Amino acid sequence: MDNDVFKVENLSFAYGRHQVIRDLSLTLSKNRITTIIGANGCGKSTLFHLLTKNLQPERGSIFVNGKNIRDIPLKDFAREAAIVHQYNTAPVDLSVEKLISYGRTPYHTMGISKDSNEDEKKIRWAMEITNTEKYKDKAVSQLSGGQKQRVWIAMALAQDTKILFLDEPTTYLDIRYQLQILRLIRQLNREYKITIIMVLHDINQSLYYSDEIIAMKEGRVLKQGKPETVVTGELIRSVYGVSLNMREVDGKPFVLPV
Question: pTM of whole model > 0.85?
Answer without folding.
Answer: yes
